[in-house]
Amino acid sequence: MTRGLRRRLTSYGDQDFSLFLRKAFIKAMGYTDDALDRPIVGVANTYSDYNPCHGNVPQLIEAAKRGVMLAGGMPMVFPTISIHESFASPTSMFLRNLMAMETEEMVRAQPMDSVILIGGCDKTIPAQVMAAASSEVPAIVLPTGPMDTGNHRGERLGACTDCRRVWAQYRAEQIDGDEVSEINGKLASSVGTCTVMGTASTMATLMEAMGLTLPMAGSAAATSAERMRLAEETGRAAVAMTETGLTTAEVLTPAALRNGLVTLQALGGSTNAVVHLAAIYGRLGKKLDMAEFDAIGQKVPVLVDLKPSGSGYMGEFHAAGGVPRLLSELTDLLDLSAPRAFGGTLADTVGTQSQRYEDQIIRSRSRPISSSGAIAVLSGNLAPRGAVIKHSAADPQLLTHEGRAIVFDSVKDMTERLDDPSLEITAEDVLVLRNAGPRGAPGMPEAGYIPIPRHLARQGVKDMVRLSDARMSGTAFGTIVLHITPESADGGPLAAVRTGDRIRLDVPGRKLELLVSANELAARMADLPPPPPVPERGYAWLYDQHVTQADDGLDFDFLMAKPHE
Ligand code: FES
Ligand code: MG
């Protein structure tokens, strides 16, 4: 394959002239021929003033460039979209595929022999790995790393499980407006990603377990010297990958993908990872088998005691040995022969761990946080193609529950009526939210964490059964059924539920049932209101026409690879 600046020449009909032009222009940046006659490592820059989770990207770029140059390569930094959870409207998920498309095409369009993908906030690593899986350029992921924790009156705080807990206390009038404002300045105490086992940490650590980051790169703190050294080492690795590198599709073998599923269950990781992994599978022409994922969950214990399932923060996970230490507890359940993007196998990652003492944060198999995994897959007449629940973060007493449905037709409807005292809700009721799925909202917002109605919160109610076609933040907790598929706006039976219906949740039996007869359900389905109008133009139109359901990861149908298994 042609390498360096000769790679992917724009054709003016004369390849030598194309190279001549390319060199003439790039020399305007001050490069010499010697600098240009080397393997080129692209570095995706996702810095943005709107993205504090990527606030350390400029320093990471400097360190990665240093590593590339020390190893004899030429780094070329290029910008891509940057998406932050709180600054992307209508949802960051709505924009993930746009980022994946943009990253894929920029990696393909510009000359680079390997690429370093720097990212961290929830949708970034998924978008980048989806792009890489569709690209032939060897790629290595460099996560930005988790933020530091803060402290309020002696209590540690970290975004964003504590954001939710504190806000719930404020809603329940346990803390006042002054204190909640004071805490606001302490929740995200440095740049970097949310410091619990939310989606960002889950995806970064999964990529480490799947061979796409250097060992420990999934968890080192954003502000640490170790993070910068990992960036430098990533730069060096990326140069070696220009010679020997596997493509991401070659790294993500069936063994690597399955290792990802095992690790997700053991981490107590985010439900959002199920959606992102399904999208990555789709880029490889495969379908994430939800039954297999559930079966893995029945064998794999949760070993990591981090919020929201447990009590710690990412700093402790890293100190306890991070992913290599976790994987060393799971060797019988993993395939350690899975390759890594930068050479060697997962066995080499496990071999880097030196921690052998008993630890509270990464437990040994004899002392799990819970003996079965974090996430269960449900099905039934309400979720014909599945739904998920993070049962490790739920009230165990509610995992088998039957109650009266209270239905909200949209996120707006829920926001307007949830706290209305005239709406009679008891703690035994089942809160149902619909039209919050991939097409319905659009963008499948993280609205599945339906707040406890204010009057019940004041009475001390902390958890209720809640269900929706939405997602939930990986930093949230509760007895919450998510990703009901198909969604209500795409012909799912969730659209037919009425307030007053009975709903049965049976997590041990993996069932979610609406207790009405098949005939009644069919009659209701035939009598649904018309779907909302299709957006008229632009990305919203493209999204609406091509987004897939949660079981295909919300990727666009035209971006998925043709099945080849
Ligand atoms: Fe970016 Fe949580 S908001 S990782
Ligand atoms: Mg999140």
TrEMBL record:
InterPro entries the UniProt entry points to: Dihydro-acid_dehy_C, DiOHA_6PGluconate_deHydtase_CS, ILV_EDD_C, ILV_EDD_N, IlvD/EDD_N, Sugar_Degrad_Dehydratases
Enzyme class, spelled out: lyase
Residue ranges of domain Dihydroxy-acid/6-phosphogluconate dehydratase N-terminal in the record: 38-348
Signal peptide range: none
Pfam families associated with the record: ILV_EDD_C, ILVD_EDD_N
Similarity annotation: Belongs to the IlvD/Edd family.
Stretches of the chain forming a coiled coil according to its record: none
Lyase in keyword set: yes
E.C. designation(s): 4.2.1.9
Keyword Ligase recorded: no
Domain called Dihydroxy-acid/6-phosphogluconate dehydratase C-terminal: residue spans: 360-553
NCBIfam families assigned to the protein according to its UniProt record, in alphabetical order: PRK06131.1
Full protein name: Dihydroxy-acid dehydratase
Key words of the record: Iron, Iron-sulfur, Lyase, Metal-binding
